[in-house]
Design goal:
Elements lengths: L2 E9 L5 H11 L3 E13 L5 E6 L2 H12 L6 E4 L5 H13 L5 E3 L16 H9 L5 E2 L3 H8 L7 H13 L5 E6 L7 E7 L4 E7 L9 H14 L4 H17 L15 H6 L1
Parallel strand pairs: 1-2, 1-4, 4-5, 5-6
Antiparallel strand pairs: 2-3, 7-8, 8-9
The chain binds 3-hydroxy-5-(hydroxymethyl)-2-methylisonicotinaldehyde.
The site of 3-hydroxy-5-(hydroxymethyl)-2-methylisonicotinaldehyde (PXL) has 15 residues, from strand 1 and helix 7.
């Protein structure tokens, strides 16, 4: 059995975080494990306001021991870490267990939350985790932060950000423009392997229900790597996966709608 793990927050609404990761791993036919870093909750009676409950350090370490010791995970993804000790522990376990297929999803904002979560964590993430990453998967906002460019709003700026982020240690970078690039006629992401750029395009899916798209994409790439795909193949496959997922997204309630990882199965069954 191919085993993969996510180090991520729990999204109680089920669309993002480790819930999205585990659903995605299942679709890829790999065995998913999870070390939860924090629990995010949302208030449906107060504008879907987010609250974050960190998991204490000893509990996170004990989960990482459970996940890594004697298991042989083929690839690992990290998502929302939420604390300096979660960054440190992630570095320690990825390093100690020599995880070659480490996908760093540098989650800094939740859709709907607006503001950056724990901005003071960003430099720690950059210094401690980027150098271990086989792939970093920033969205436009995160690419702007990690690169120091601030705003990233064009393909040229995506390229510049990818180059800078690779220079900080990530072996490969996927800047996820998705539907967010101003004026984009397609969902457009940029892959950089340290030398060459590849632009990945998919049809724009006209939906506001995109919760969890970033988590799902990074989880799909992680599962692809675990199954032996090259980094580029894993990225290109994940692009098709997220497109199917978003084409079957739905309203969970009046505030939020998740993608639907099962869309893949329905499309190709
Ligand atoms: O979509 C980013 C994200 C990641 N991880 C957790 C979240 C969210 C957004 O809600 O709750 C746990």
């Amino acid at each position: 059995m191919v085993k993969v793990a996510t180090i991520a927050g729990s999204d109680a609404s089920g669309g993002a975080g480790l819930e999205a990761d585990l659903k995605t791993f299942e679709e890829y036919g790999v065995y998913g494990m999870a070390a939860v870093t924090l629990i995010a909750t949302m208030d449906s009676e107060n504008n879907w306001a987010h609250r974050v409950f960190p998991i204490e350090e000893a509990a996170l370490r004990a989960q990482l021991d459970t996940v890594f010791k004697g298991v042989g995970v083929a690839a690992v993804k990290s998502g929302m870490l939420g604390s300096l000790y979660a960054v440190e522990l992630t570095r320690e376990y990825i390093g100690k267990h020599r995880i070659a297929g480490y996908v760093l999803d540098p989650v800094m904002v939740c859709k709907g939350a607006g503001e950056a979560l724990n901005p003071e964590l960003n430099s720690s993430l950059e210094q401690k985790l980027l150098p271990l990453a086989e792939l970093a998967t920033p969205n436009l906002f995160e690419a702007g932060q990690l690169s120091g460019l601030g705003e990233v709003a064009s393909l040229e700026q995506m390229k510049e950000a990818a180059r800078i982020i690779a220079g900080k240690g990530a072996r490969n970078v996927l800047v996820k423009g998705g539907a967010k690039l101003p004026g984009a006629a397609a969902a457009l992401d940029l892959f950089f392997d340290g030398r060459n750029f590849e632009v990945l395009e998919a049809p724009l899916i006209k939906t506001g229900w995109t919760h969890g798209a970033g988590c799902t994409t990074a989880a799909a790439i992680t599962a692809g790597l675990a199954r032996g795909l090259s980094v580029y193949e894993a990225v290109a496959t994940a692009k098709r996966f997220i497109t199917e997922s978003l084409s079957r997204s739905f309203a969970l309630n009046r505030w939020v709608g998740p993608g639907n990882p099962g869309g893949w199965r329905r499309a190709f069954a």
